Amino acid sequence: MSSSGSTYGDIHRYEPARESTAAAIAIVLLTIIEVVFVFLFSYGLVSGWGLSDTGNMFLGGLLAVIFMDLAFILALYRKEFLPDVMIVKKRRRKWEDLYIREEDVDGVPFSTGAWDQVKRAIYPYYKR
Asked: What Pfam families does the entry give (predicted)?
């Protein structure tokens, strides 16, 4: 579904999510595995496995597996359950956004205020 509107904020393209059952089952299974690994990591941390060299490496490996499993869960969720939406945005020139405000295109007078000039010099995104 797409619209022909070109004003700011209009939805240009909307594709609904697939919401497959296989992805939902995979997310549930990965979540169960995640809980098991988190429990194992917590148990090892409380038991003092990190005091030995091999135990410390094992805990580090468990932590890596926990975050990789979480990454797979989030990737599956994003791909299968979030819609693909493209909205119309206002196009601006790169330099315009970064350094000057719209009302200051012609320049600013030198005598405005010393403190405001210092703030603009230090922080160029001042009151965008």
From this structure: DUF7318
Alpha carbon distance 121, 31 (integer Å): 49
Higher pLDDT, 67 or 102: 67
In whole angstroms, give the CA distance from residue 126 to residue 128: 6
Domain ranges of the chain: 10-104
What pTM was estimated for this model as a whole?
0.59
Which pair of tokens denotes residue 40?
């194992």
Rounded average pLDDT over 10-36: 89
Are 80 and 17 within 8 A, CB to CB? yes
φ/ψ of 16, rounded to 5, equals -65, 160
* DSSP E strand stretches across the chain: 11-15, 84-87
pLDDT the model gives residue 65:
97
Cβ partners under 8 Å of residue 70, min gap 6: 34
